[in-house]
Amino acid sequence: MQVVIDDRVPVTKYGSPAFARPSKNGAWWVPILEKAYSKLNMNYLGISGGFDKEAYRALTGMPVDDIKVDGLSSD
């Protein structure tokens, strides 16, 4: 299935993104990914309360797993 989206995301009355936010470095891939996943589920209400790994699996078709990094050193 192909999903076509534009580059607009819903915003609050203050102009900030209503749901997912861009990264600290200004990357917008998470809000755009969220928009694509919501379109697969009809709208944003269809993904309320989900996990990001569900979207990665649905959009890529690849297995997804969590990797715990708590307590690791920066080395």
Helical content class: 25-40%
Order of helices and strands: HH
Radius of gyration, taken over Cα atoms and rounded to an integer in Å? 14 Å
User: Into which percentage range does the β-strand content fall?
Assistant: under 5%
Label the overall shape. Answer: globular
Number of alpha- plus pi-helical segments: 2
| pLDDT < 50 stretches | none
Quick synopsis:
The protein has 75 residues and is mainly alpha-helical.
Structure commentary:
This protein is mainly α and about 80 residues long. It has a domain at about 30-60. The protein has two helices and no strands. The model has no long low-confidence stretch (mean pLDDT about 80).
Task: From the structure above, extract its key features.
28% helix, 75 residues, globular, single chain, mainly alpha
Secondary-structure blueprint of this entry?
Blueprint: H1 29-40, H2 52-60
Helix pairs in contact: 1-2
